């Protein structure tokens, strides 16, 4: 492998890291509250509201059922609107975030659903408001599960980031595509694939450790 | 003495898949300040629903529930939350936050009422001392036994100085020894803090041990309410009788034989009635079952005996017991 390609791979690792980090961060900033809303407005929950639950649920389901590659292309005009360009690492963060939001929302919802109803009843009996109960009882109790879900989400975003290479998003995916696929450089292909696998494994391991550290039961 | 709770004609109806289910029917009762009030009934009788109407975790369908004269149904969400700071509750499943330490769990109730951090810690530690768990302050609930978890829940419930403590089957998940320890603790707190306690249970032993008054709930109806010693020595309703008197373990040896229940109300529990009967009349009875229980230190007992077939002999025996001050009632064989 030439030094030129080695440099490209190093840059790719960095770009993949940047895309994954920011897309995960932004998707949680939006997806976490959405997950909390989905959970708390569903039937029998603290802020039961059929209309809100239906609308958000429908949006989440529609976004989630679009194949990510299609979403990438569909979102090009939106991306240009947000970051002023549609190619490059920064631009790729936009569709990655949008694609991850519904997954994060459903993951958060399912983690919160695991919390025993008894704890919520205890909070109510102490005179806690619904919002207080969510912040101080439900989310802390669901934390180990949320962290585990977090690791899965970040790994998914990492996988998606490789696809961003198709529309000029940079990162390891783009390198694998350009050098490995279009130019038949198998060594480059395998190197990038190995690096991606290592990155996913590191994220999983980190998630599991964090979750274990937090799980007190 | 003030009435803490006053329930008037409380009905609770659930609608499930278009079907209506009435969990509470025309329940009226009062809970007085400083007493330990037991609510007993079979599972599914509606007692858990009943206790939840006391802090409005369950809304009543009709009727009123008042807390110190205030109708709970009239309160707005914010006012209700404030009232709930005076009505603490503990549960069968403890309901602690497992991802928080013991001390953090105890502090939760104080945090909700807005106690400043330093004061919160101090009060929580004091409460842990009261329940005997000071050394477990920084442990997580998963490391505690069931009895210890319930103590933490009690500390959490009482840290805010409530006026009432509601106990929903609080000892049902615990073994008899631990149950007794928890009941002793509740009794101690009741005496020291003049705290009113409402206990929901399906266990007679719990009511016997610490309750002053008891209500018997049967199929959503209030079957009977009164002082524990009255209800236990002389139950009036069928549901109360069923709870107080266990069913007959044996069938009588003779189909013709009559079965009666003799109830001792404490003053005669040291007189050997059966021996006296044989000595003085020469007539014999067949004892089918007998038991005694101690309610507030006084022995109460009942005996189920089979009488001889001849009517005049039976009458003689019944008269003998009645003259001795015991109550005698015929037992229906299918009871």
The whole-number mean of residue pLDDT values of chain B reads 88
Order of helical and strand elements of chain B:
EEEHEEHEHHHEHEHEEHHEHEEHE
Helix-strand makeup class of chain B = alpha/beta
Helix content range of chain B: 25-40%
DSSP strand tally of chain A: 0
Strand content of chain B: 25-35%
Give the CATH level 1 class of the largest domain in chain B. Alpha Beta
Structural Rg of chain A: 20 Å
Alpha-carbon distance between the termini of chain A?
Answer: 50 Å
Could you list the spans of chain B in which at least 5 consecutive residues all have pLDDT below 50? none
Distance between the termini of chain B: 39 Å
- The shape of chain A, in one word, is elongated
Note the total helix count of chain A: 9
Tally of extended strands of chain B? 14
The proportion of residues forming helix of chain A, as a percent range, comes to over 70%
Largest β-sheet summary of chain A: none
What's the domain count of chain B? Answer: 2
What is the CATH topology of the largest domain in chain B?
A: Rossmann fold
Total helical segments of chain B? 11
**Structural class estimated from helices and strands of chain A:** mainly alpha
Low-confidence stretches of chain A: none
